[in-house]
Amino acid sequence: MTMAGQERRRIPWACRRGLLELDLWLAPLARARDVLRTEEVPACLELLAQPDRVLLDWLEGRARPPQRFGQLIEFIRKGCAS
Questions:
Q1: What percent of the chain is helix, strand and coil (3-state, nearest 5)?
Q2: Are 55 and 22 in contact, with CB atoms under 8 Å apart?
Q3: pTM for the complete prediction?
Q4: For residue 58, which of 8, 18, 20, 65 is within the disulfide window of CB 3.0 to 4.6 Å?
Q5: How far apart (Å, rounded) are the C-alpha atoms in residues 19 and 12?
Q6: Are 19 and 52 in contact (CB under 8 A)?
Q7: Could you write out the three-class secondary structure of 38-75?
Q8: How deeply is 40 buried, as exposed, middle or buried, from its count of CB atoms within 10 A (0-12, 13-18, 19+)?
Q9: 5-16, pLDDT tens digit by residue?
Q10: How far apart (Å, rounded) are the C-alpha atoms in residues 57 and 8?
Q11: What's the pLDDT tens digit per position in 23-64?
């Protein structure tokens, strides 16, 4: 398995969080991992490594995410639909 394939397989586990609200936001991302372009996978894992409260604030629009996460946040907000 390639490195990108291994990283892609980590996404569903990284989507499992301690907050129900985040689980609801991130469940579609866990299912849509194969839709992500190979170059998006590392950024996705970096995004998912953020603290729960920070990530929730970004997803719910209470705080502005760093520019490098902007497209991924929008992808998640749209229910991971292209």
A1: 70, 0, 30
A2: yes
A3: 0.89
A4: 65
A5: 15
A6: yes
A7: HHHHHHHHHHHCCCHHHHHHHHCCCCCCCHHHHHHHHH
A8: middle
A9: 789 999 999 999
A10: 24
A11: 999 999 999 988 999 989 999 999 999 999 999 999 999 999
Q: What angle do CA 40, 41, 45 make, to 5 degrees?
A: 120
Angle at 26 between CA 74 and CA 67, to 5 degrees: 35
Tell me the C-alpha to C-alpha distance, in Å, between residue 20 and each of 41, 55, 68, 76. 23, 13, 25, 15
Determine the Cα–Cα distance for residues 70 and 20; give it in Å rounded to an integer: 22
CATH of the domain at 15: 1.10.150.250
Q: Looking at the chain, how many residues does it have?
A: 82
The residue assigned the tokens 């990284």 is: 14
Number of structural domains the chain divides into: 1
Domain for residue 35, yes or no? yes
